[in-house]
């Protein structure tokens, strides 16, 4: 689920799997993990929403503006599905801007969520639990706003929000974004660019890239701009995140942990 602040324990695991083709428009991935040791987990903003089963309850976790701290016990095992950025509002049936960072799914879906919790509690296999969550999402028969999805995709590569054009006015696009994502295009652009920076931690740690070069390549005004954004969105400096990534630059295969480990393609938690 992100970059830990100390070496990963071997017993901490995390795996992601591709969604079923029928859900690819609304689900980014399914995942399951085991905590390994008790700690406060720092969830980084990525604009997505996760449906999470922790063995006791189904919750919705949304991060779009700032890192979120969640305490997880050593024995925690969790299964989830990550809803695509821009698709969560259609699936959940409510504006993302109206949701707190963590919410019990039964507050949105009532009896349907409670029935799913009963089935999940009676199921031990993570793959089967993930299938239950995917079936729960499929029953929503959600149709996300294609213009928002197109804009979100464009923001993933753009260096400026002005580069995004999906056939509607800037004001209308912002209104749709606040509903579907929980933030306007500019805020999401900051988050998506930060996520692209996190994907470059490995070459930075290996000395194949420099912070100044990465900052320029991602469209930051300068290295100081990257530093300010990094602190706002993670609470750590770029150099601190690189130092964490350096711990994984060893011949031994890195152990997995919640959401992802440093060399992986996706970061969300520390």
Unreliable segments (pLDDT under 50, ≥5 consecutive)?
1-10, 251-267
The secondary-structure class comes to alpha+beta
* Number of helical regions: 11
CATH domain fold name: Arc Repressor Mutant, subunit A
N-C termini distance: 7 Å
What is the CATH level 1 assignment? Mainly Alpha
Instruction: Give Rg in angstroms.
Output: 18 Å
- Portion in strands: 15-25%
CATH superfamily: Homeodomain-like
Biggest beta sheet summary: 6 strands, antiparallel
Total beta strand runs: 8
* Number of individual domains: 1
Strand numbers in spatial order across the main sheet:
1-2-7-4-5-8
For the record, the CATH architecture stands as Orthogonal Bundle
Shape: globular
Topology:
Blueprint: E1 13-17, E2 27-34, E3 39-43, E4 49-53, E5 58-62, E6 68-72, E7 77-83, H1 88-92, E8 102-104, H2 106-109, H3 111-121, H4 126-138, H5 146-155, H6 170-180, H7 185-198, H8 201-205, H9 211-217, H10 223-234, H11 238-246
Antiparallel strand pairs: 1-2, 2-7, 3-6, 4-5, 4-7, 5-8
Helix pairs in contact: 3-4
Quick overview of this protein structure:
The protein is of the alpha+beta class. It has helices at residues 88-92, 106-109, 111-121, 126-138, 146-155, 170-180, 185-198, 201-205, 211-217, 223-234, 238-246, and strands at 13-17, 27-34, 39-43, 49-53, 58-62, 68-72, 77-83, 102-104.
Describe what this molecule looks like in 3D.
The radius of gyration is 18 Å and the shape is globular. Strands 1-2-7-4-5-8 form a 6-stranded antiparallel β-sheet. It has a two-stranded antiparallel ribbon with strand order 3-6. It has a single domain (13-246), classed as Homeodomain-like (Arc Repressor Mutant, subunit A, Orthogonal Bundle), CATH 1.10.10. With 270 residues, it is an alpha+beta fold. Helix content is 37%, strand content 16%. The longest helix has 14 residues, at 185-198. The chain has helices at residues 88-92, 106-109, 111-121, 126-138, 146-155, 170-180, 185-198, 201-205, 211-217, 223-234, 238-246; strands at residues 13-17, 27-34, 39-43, 49-53, 58-62, 68-72, 77-83, 102-104.
């Amino acid at each position: 689920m992100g970059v830990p602040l100390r070496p990963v324990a071997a017993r901490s695991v995390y795996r992601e799997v591709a969604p079923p083709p029928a859900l690819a428009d609304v689900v980014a991935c399914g995942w399951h993990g085991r905590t390994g040791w008790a700690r406060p987990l720092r969830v980084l903003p990525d604009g997505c929403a996760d449906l999470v089963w922790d063995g006791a309850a189904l919750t919705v976790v949304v991060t779009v503006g700032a890192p979120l701290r969640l305490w997880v016990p050593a024995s925690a095992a969790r299964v989830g599905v990550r809803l695509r950025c821009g698709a969560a509002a259609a699936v959940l049936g409510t504006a993302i801007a109206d949701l707190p960072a963590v919410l019990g799914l039964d507050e949105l879906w009532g009896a349907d969520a409670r029935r799913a919790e009963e089935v999940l509690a009676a199921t031990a296999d993570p793959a089967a639990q993930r299938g239950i969550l995917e079936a729960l999402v499929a029953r929503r028969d959600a149709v996300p706003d294609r213009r928002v999805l197109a804009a979100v995709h464009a923001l993933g590569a753009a260096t400026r929000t002005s580069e995004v054009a999906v056939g509607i006015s800037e004001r209308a696009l912002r209104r749709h974004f606040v509903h579907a994502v929980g933030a306007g295009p500019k805020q999401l652009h900051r988050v998506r660019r930060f996520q692209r920076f996190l994907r470059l931690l490995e070459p930075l740690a290996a000395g194949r890239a420099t912070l100044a070069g990465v900052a320029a390549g991602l469209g930051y005004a300068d290295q100081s701009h990257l530093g300010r954004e990094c602190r706002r969105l993670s609470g750590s400096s770029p150099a601190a995140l690189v130092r964490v990534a350096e711990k994984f630059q060893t011949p031994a295969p890195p152990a997995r942990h919640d959401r992802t480990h440093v060399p992986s393609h996706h970061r969300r938690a520390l």
